[in-house]
Amino acid sequence: MVHLFKSFILTIILTFILPLFILNQTNYKIVDLTIILNLFIIVYSGIRLSILSFSNHNNIIFITFWIFVYVWLGLASFSQILLNRYPWHGFYSINEINFGLIIILLGLAFFDLGSYFGKKLYENRSGKSQFLINMIISPTKTVLLGVLGFFVSLYVIKSTGGFNNLFLPRLLFESLFPTTMDFLINRTLLTIPIFVTLLSLLILFKNKLINKHFYFFFIFTIITLIFNVLINNPIVHPRYWFGSVFLSAILILIKWKRTSAFNWICFFLILMIIVFPYADYFRAENQQFDLKPISVVMSENGDYDAFQMILNTIKYVEIKGISYGAQLFGVIFFWLPRSLWAGKPHGSGATVAEELGYSFTNLSSPFWAESYINFGLVGVILILFLYGVFIRILHEGYQNSLENKASLVSFIAPYFAAYQFFFLRGDLLNSFAYLISVIFFFSLVIKIRKV
Questions:
Q1: pLDDT tens per residue across span 10-45
Q2: Under a CB-based contact definition with an 8 Å cutoff, are residues 406 and 134 in contact?
Q3: pLDDT at 56 > cutoff 90
Q4: 216 vs 115, 142, 178, 376, CA distance in Å?
Q5: Of residues 146, 5, 201, the one with CA closest to residue 441
Q6: How far apart are CA 307 and CA 104, in angstroms?
Q7: How many CB atoms lie within 10 A of CB 436?
Q8: Residue 290 above 80 pLDDT?
Q9: Distance (Å) of CA 145 to CA 21, 194, 196
Q10: Are the beta carbons of 41 and 74 closer than 8 angstroms?
Q11: What positions belong to coiled-coil segments (predicted)?
């Protein structure tokens, strides 16, 4: 009964109090189609979160999805529309704003449909899905990757001038490398192998699978943890990456309880609405802390530009047309050098920003915008449907992996749950490259369990 009451209170806060709080910070008095569409996104995602908060199951992958929708596509867009103010310069007609909201709602509808279909698909093919669970972490391979990761990381650190440079602001650290490609390769080698090693060790320890050489593995894990704190710090790396490292480790370690869903939802809401927008202040010199109303922060801070970038993508498509998958091919073949593919597309965020005349082009491109720029409304329907299928299958596999310890899914699910904020915000070129790199290095520590 207590859990039901807490979920009810959460519903009231998410669907009524928070929107009203933001509305009260503006002078907007008219309730029109735009506000109705926007409120529908807020209310629907708020109700979904409230339902998840009452569940006994570990729904962390769905929780982070709906947190992103509620905060970035719900509250942030609500603030921007009410104040008629956006993080980047731009003017948008009512028709464009309404169309952007419809794109979001259409994507959510087909995401849910895909999730329903994914559940049926998993149940009907559960036997063929066992390969995800039968791929398990090898302690020996984990140590080997860790040793390799230490040496590679130390080489990168030495080549960039020593440990002190690990605490430079991100842009200064990037300037230490001659080209962007050099920076990306070195950053991957510096951070990901040792991060994958840490998560693999945590899974092994949590599930009590270290039977031999316990003290060696314990000391090795402590050293790996300290090394991760040094090299994956939030000063030199994007907050999304630091958040993925920190949150995925916590999700692996903490045992899921009856109240965990409610606690995690409250934690994410506080983190993404209150803490996140101010977490960048310490990264720049001489930046003064300025506490502002939530509506103002969400309409001025570039971290909440997801809705505006959907609107910008609509403008881009009006001018240039859809890419018919060209942007998606650029994502899939991110690893191919431009020397071999001179016309390889840039990230969708940068492509849209350049076309619309932005001087700063390192902008996001949320999953809905990526779908639309590639295939229009058909892309939104198809890609969000497939994403719903994927998330459901990953979720179901994770539920089963809780009884089959140290499997592939027991690594991928908590990591992707934490990483999903970055993945959904985009752009897809960067988020996909990070994701594939993590999966590649994790594949080096798995083995097939004999059944």
A1: 999 999 999 999 988 887 777 789 999 999 999 999
A2: no
A3: no
A4: 43, 13, 39, 54
A5: 146
A6: 9
A7: 14
A8: no
A9: 50, 8, 8
A10: yes
A11: none
